[in-house]
Amino acid sequence: MKLVLIRHAESLDNAEQKTVGTGGRGLSERGKRQAKALAHELRWHRIRFVYSSPLKRAMETAQAIGKPVKEALHMQEVNLGRLEGLAHEEMKTRFPGAIERMFVEPHYRLPGGETLLEVHDRAMPFLNALKKRHENQTVAVVAHNVVNRVAIASLLGLPLRHCRNVKQKNAAYSVFYLKKNENRLYTINNETHFVK
């Protein structure tokens, strides 16, 4: 299976530098332009199926691709608990080092939220099921920053603590070829289609 793993386009919360996990709003005007440019770029990949996190910013990005979208609850963003909705600076003041610790210690639970291990344990079975269901087909999955970082590290066989080194920009995508016993990465965080 060819997997095109996408981070949603810029949301209103991204534009306002707010920390959002399982909440949040839809796309900003810039995000809508990004989603349109992304859809144009992806036409070369001949995507057959599109799955998306149910969160509004991901669904709006997925719908721009122009195929029917299937909901993928397992690919929603990490539950940030008490960090949800805080401005970046406020989060750093009220919960100093929490996000950094989450990436260093995959078993660390964000206050009122999830661990990276829990994100892994819901996302990876879903992606493995897709690999079996869509053998020799191209599938797009639209998700989020942290869950995509976890997925990329896991597909490459890296320990979860290394997912902190995997960057995911809004509307960027990565391409994997997933085979029965092997996963190959062909491109990561592709942003050549970006718009201002």
Describe this entry's structure for a reader.
By secondary structure, the protein is α/β, with parallel strands linked by helices. The chain has a single domain (2-190), classed as Phosphoglycerate mutase-like (Rossmann fold), CATH 3.40.50. It has helices at 12-15, 29-42, 56-64, 88-94, 98-104, 116-133, 145-155; strands at 2-7, 49-52, 69-71, 138-143, 173-178, 183-190. Strands 3-2-4-1-5-6 form a six-stranded mixed beta sheet. Strand 2, helix 3 and strand 3 (69-71) form a beta-alpha-beta unit. Helix 6 (116-133) crosses helix 7 (145-155). The model has no long low-confidence stretch (mean pLDDT 95).
Task: List its traits.
196 residues; Rossmann fold; 6-stranded mixed sheet; globular; alpha/beta; 36% helix
Helix count equals 7
Please report which band the strand proportion falls in: under 5%, 5-15%, 15-25%, 25-35%, 35-45% or over 45%: 15-25%
> Biggest sheet: strands, sense, closure?
6 strands, mixed
Query: What is the multimeric organization of the chains shown?
Result: single chain
Helix share bin: 25-40%
Just name the CATH architecture: 3-Layer(aba) Sandwich
Cα Rg: 16 Å
Note the run of SSEs as H and E. Answer: EHHEHEHHHEHEE
Strand order of the largest sheet: 3-2-4-1-5-6
Structural class: alpha/beta
CATH topology: Rossmann fold
What is the tally of beta strands? 6
Q: What global shape is seen?
A: globular
Return the average pLDDT rounded to an integer: 95
- As residue ranges, the low-confidence spans are none
- What is the CATH homologous superfamily assignment? Phosphoglycerate mutase-like
Overall structural domain count: 1
